[in-house]
Design brief:
The chain is mainly α and about 90 residues long. The protein has three helices and no strands.
Length: about 90
């Protein structure tokens, strides 16, 4: 069980790190055709895209994109719930 929880924790940290990198890359001028930018975009867009669309439907945030914040909170919430469930079932 410890190995699964640890691996899940590393995966969540990787996703959070990639989202933070994408936030920073949105503040500075980055070549959108670079392989690093492409990698970060391919990793984070499947996570951020649905949150962005949902937030645009519910509230108009204007030019500020709050989807990374909501995604980070959701990722952490889901991780904590999964770890709690795994410990309860004794896995």
């Amino acid at each position: 069980m410890y190995v699964i929880v640890k691996a899940l924790g590393y995966f969540v940290q990787f996703l959070e790190f990639m989202i933070f990198i994408r936030i920073i890359m949105s503040w500075v001028r980055v070549n959108p055709y670079s392989s690093f930018y492409s990698f970060v975009f391919r990793v984070t867009e499947p996570i951020l895209g649905p949150f962005r669309e949902g937030m645009n439907r519910l509230i108009n945030t204007g030019p500020i994109d709050f989807s990374p914040i909501v995604a980070l909170l959701a990722i952490r919430l889901i991780y904590n719930m999964l770890v709690g469930i795994l410990f309860r079932i004794g896995f």
